[in-house]
Amino acid sequence: MRARQDRGIRPTRLAPLAIAVALVGLVAVVSVSMLLGAANLGWTRVAQEVWAQLTGGRSPLSATEAAIVWDVRLPRIVLAGLVGAALAMAGAAFQGVFRNPLADPFLLGAAAGAGMAATIVVVAAPQVTGWVIGPLPLAAFAGAIGGVGLTWLLGRSAGGGTAVLLLAGVAVASFLTAIQTFVQQLNTDTIKQVYSWMLGGLNTTGWREILVTVPYIALAGVVLCLCGRLLDVLAVGDDEAASLGVRPGRVRVVVLLAASLATAAAVSVSGLIGFVGIVVPHVVRLLAGASYRVVIPLSLAGGAVFLIVADHIARTAFAPAELPIGVITAFTGAPFFLLVLRMNRQEVR
């Protein structure tokens, strides 16, 4: 019994230094991304604009330039932070539930469901306007939730268990992707738009998307942070967890629901941005330890930092042209994925 406990993850507390470093890093990347953008406003003039807004002084920017800073640049930075935080903490939660270092937020069919629903909307309602929230984000959110729900129902009908749930996720993702491909082939004129959405992007012109997604991501974040200690207990095995009064099945349901909600909210406004849920949790483990009481909250901050930086590169590297943000995360994440696979080859056999 003691030997198995020694191999498990011993819960630790989140150190104040780690919180401070995460907050400083987040403030730094937000500041840089706000001062520098595709529109060459001059970073000193933007800094003076921010200071003028804080102190009531006179701004050097015109009304149009100020609108670029506050109504275009800042909302996009905040949205990138929210999406990155959601995907990173969901990835950490999935890795804890499945005890698999290669698990990611799209494991149970969220990506396939969102992609299928988004494709159907692009084909069926390409010119719909005037909605508070566009039909594409709504469909992507519903599709992501529906994909996970279908996986859960299929897994439960086959007997439950994490291994069965993983196989159900593969089956559901394949089925939904097949439907998406069929719809695309019938409507080839929409392929470019569909693939543009699937490669990920944060095209926002205000605060509407942020106000819609914040409640879901905040709720999921609170639940997952509170479940960090329980995931630590699950890491030593279901029998030991049960002997300590933890109900493994119930914990997994709650964590998967919260992580899937965060993933669906992120996908609805950003498309399919890969690798965030794998890269960030592993970097946090290397730097701050393996306890989920540490990994989940720091992944939340780290995911925000990572995606803000990736989005900044995407919108400035070839300005005025813009790269899909999924391309940037893939350039970073694919080599890291191979490194993680090599480091954990004994665990994933």
From TrEMBL:
The chain crosses the membrane at residues 12-36, 77-94, 106-125, 131-155, 162-183, 251-284, 290-309, 321-341. GO terms for molecular function: transmembrane transporter activity. CDD domains: TM_ABC_iron-siderophores_like. Keywords: Cell membrane, Membrane, Transmembrane, Transmembrane helix, Transport. One of its GO terms (cellular component) is plasma membrane. It holds the Pfam family FecCD. SUPFAM superfamilies: ABC transporter involved in vitamin B12 uptake, BtuC (SSF81345). It is found in: Cell membrane. Its main location: membrane. It is a multi-pass membrane protein. Belongs to the binding-protein-dependent transport system permease family. FecCD subfamily. This is ABC transporter permease. It comes from Actinophytocola xinjiangensis.
